[in-house]
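Agenda item 2: adenosine monophosphate complex prediction
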Amino acid sequence: MAAAAGEPEVIRDKAAMRAWSRRRRAEGRTVVLVPTMGFLHEGHLSLVSEAAATAGPIAVVVSIYVNPSQFAPTEDLATYPSDLAGDLRKLASTGAVHAVFNPPDLYVRGGTAVGASAGAAVSCLEAAVGGDGHETWIRVERLEKGLCGSSRPVFFRGVATVVAKLFNIVEPDVAVFGKKDYQQWRLICRMVRDLDFAIEIIGSEIVREADGLAMSSRNVHLSREEREKALSINRSLANARTAALNHSNSASEHIKKQIVQTLTEAGGQVDYVEIVEQESLVPVETIDRPVTICVAAFFGKILAVLVGDSPLEDG
Ligand code: AMP
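Presented output:
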């Protein structure tokens, strides 16, 4: 465990960030990265605690960057909430963060519009670049499909590419991701394995509000009524878990139908409900091994509330 970190140093420049990390490593510290898109809440801060628990002398870096390449033009990039001053206060109050990496942009943007009107399959970034613009992408080919990838075809390509860029800039030894974004966590683990990044990936447990709703920066956009309705996700997962653990009916189809019904009755618009093997994310027909239930539903106009349920350890 490191000594108290005090006020984190805010670094905006890529080269300065890399130099900072290299200096920390030369001092014998393990560099631990927590990537975020800002507007921090207790869920993010739990990742910081996880980072701070890394053994030996450490240097903890939190990145704050709203990644345009993971948003389709129809999505909420323009209204994604931000509060850098508040984030810095929260991070300083943990006493566990040594640096905040807050790059103005991680891309070389070109001048010519490319495919700007091609709809949801084109990311916000792509719509804005051309010429000298960014054109190299990382695809985790199987894991990026299905679940969130079905209705958001550019999402994981954008996530994987920016996380790889953060890894190349910060050069961490360890990086911490939340299991709330279960598919993202598994996909990053696979990318790190496949591309030989020398980085240990830690998956951190979901942090929920007192009433059970998974904490999310986007929750701020929920009206009181929508928030109430969104609690049906947690309710439906708890019921499914009980049903699966009691072996009352272990057919995935049956449990998925029950979840869809609960969400729909609550006024949610279901994006997907899947019961998957924990590492491969391959859907299972029968719950006869540890699985994860993944649910995404819209409550309100633009908001997707996503939850990867905790494992059903007993199948
Ligand atoms: P975001 O800023 O939403 O991109 O999230 C940054 C990181 O925090 C990701 O690894 C998320 O999975 C994680 N995270 C966000 N919300 C929670 C939560 N409620 N519990 C645990 N981790 C979370």
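Discussion summary: The beta strands are 9-11, 30-36, 58-64, 99-101, 174-178, 200-204, 269-277, 291-298, 304-308.
Owner for follow-up: CH.
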